[in-house]
Amino acid sequence: MTIQEIQEEIIDEFSMFDDWMQRYEYMIELGKSLPLIDEQYKVDDNLIKGCQSKVWVHAELDDDKLVFTADSDAIITKGIIAILIRAFSNQKPQDIIDADTGFIDEIGLKEHLSPTRANGLVSMVKQLKLYAVAYQTQLK
Amino acid sequence: MIKTSLDIAAIRKDFPILNREVNGQPLVYLDNAATSQTPQQVIDVIVDYYHNYNANIHRGVHSLSQEATDAYEIARNKIQKHFNIAHSYEVIFTSGTTHAINLVATGFTSFLKKGDEVLVSAMEHHSNIVPWQMLCERTGAQLKVIPMNLDGELVMEEYHALLSGKTKLVFCNHVSNALGTINPIKEIIDAAHKVGAAVLIDGAQAAAHIKPDLQALDVDFYTVSAHKMCGPTGVGMLYGKEEWLKKLPPYQGGGEMISEVTFEKTTYADLPHKFEAGTPNICGGIAFGAALDYMNHLGFDAIAQYEDDLIQYATEQLLSIEGLKIYGTAAHKTSVISFNIEGIHPYDIGTILDKLGIAVRTGHHCAQPIMDFYKIPGTVRASFSFYNTQDEVDKLVAGVKRAKGMLQ
Minimal CA–CA distance to B318: which of B407, B392, B375? Predict the structure, then answer.
């Protein structure tokens, strides 16, 4: 699936929830199901700044696609990462660079998160795109 | 029900913001250690200033300027009286505690040299650490730390052992913002004075709960932020003993702080103006005075009694939650409960509580050394004021239980 198709799928899933409780419970579930990052990548170099909780992200190329793994010490943050990784992992770097991130607003994440937390979310997206830029250069 | 001589229901009506909803729920405001809410009586003073006598002070010959000057100086006198300060010119208006500490730390640059020592407590806010680190970098003086124990109390034997003829300055908060500990500042001040060291007490967290007698304490410097005691943001006080304020060089140059200016030489104004360069936060200063009036009308004894009972009730109720641990279990504490639940990140709990309309602080509370001491990423901090109710404590406890259920 393309990034666009995955994002639409995520928007569909979140539209089924009636209230914040269900939405958060779903995010917590997603957080719990996030595949664990290899411990060797949970180092300060892979930390994303701007999050109140710790977030580690690792990226590596699998053929021409970029694969992200990540972890956080906070479960709701992990849920947010799980959503981002689902949208952006296993995609070509150029597609990640070009991808629109409006779906974050549409699933009601950004508007329900406080400025510091929203900054964390923004930082995460920025970091994923930065990885894509770095690997795109490498592919060329 | 918690017994109190205060009419809490009537008091809550003084605070318009307490009527609002957050995320569709009635606001439960438990972040008072970060900033307190503002009563209508103080808001009215702010509005009255801009409606009726907004003018620059200390320099105009016109009536508005005179009215504003009078109101500002009356506020200074209220602060003087409230903290039992000997002279009104020992009250320096600042933008808040951080500004006040930086003023003193910068001024001490000319008094310190290599080999001197300054002592800081292990439970300080970053604003009472970083300016002194910068001072030590400038002067070569050494920063030493008064350790604390697991209850969040300073180890006083260690403090006394650290004091020597080399000690020039000691700085410590009156109440810890992260743990709520009330520090034994009288003992700290007296012991420092015996070795000839000056003492700065950061009263930012204490002043909303304790009315200190600064002459009886014999403290050299004491700092306060108005926004933590029902006043507006952007204004606070530095108290300094006259002898120190005379010795300290001016902090910022500008208008208001001068006596005569020529291009060859400038002579500085007398206290307090020497430290009040530029147009101050006039309205803020006047409103600070009004905030003190409001709190004194309620009475600090009644406030302290009620808050102590409220925090004791909250502590008991929170501890009934399995896996909940409170950080800061000092024998003497006030207004703050810092806690975590085993296996859950404080950020997650804070996020769920916010959805329930409950405002708490999560994180390191600008006191990273304390979090390092306990080896935790941060805590959830509920901090109380006299307008909080037993019902709000129950909502907090129910909210924490609900968050725990969702997150575990």
Answer: B392
Question: What six digits make up the tokens of B308?
Answer: 């102590």
Least CB–CB distance from B348: residue in A76, A112, A114: A76
Q: What is the pTM of this model?
A: 0.91
- Largest Cα–Cα separation, chain A: 46
A89 at interface of B, judged by CB pairs closer than 8 A: no
Q: List the single range of B125-139, B150-164, B307-321 with lowest mean pLDDT.
A: B125-139
Do A52 and B348 count as a contact with CB atoms less than 8 A apart? Answer: no
Whether A113 shows a pLDDT value over 60: the answer reads: no
pLDDT, tens digit (0-9, with 9 covering 90-100), for A15-56? 888 888 888 899 899 988 887 788 888 888 888 766 677 888
The answer to whether the Cβ–Cβ distance between B378 and A54 falls below 8 Å is no
In B, minimum Cα distance to A114 occurs at B351
CA-based nearest distance A74→chain B, Å: 5
| Residue B45 DSSP code | H
User: Which is nearest to A114 in space by CA: B345, B363, B377?
Assistant: B363
Please classify residue B64 by burial: count the beta carbons closer than 10 Å to its beta carbon, then call 0-12 exposed, 13-18 middle and 19+ buried.
Answer: middle
Of B11, B22, B37, which Cα lies nearest the Cα of B395?
A: B22
- Whose tokens are 């808001």? That residue is B43
Q: Which of A37, A48, A51, A109 is catalytic?
A: A51
CA dist B49 → B45, B273, B360 (Å)? 6, 22, 32
Q: How far apart are CA B271 and CA B245, in angstroms?
A: 8
Q: Is B25 exposed, middle or buried (0-12, 13-18, 19+ CB in 10 A)?
A: middle
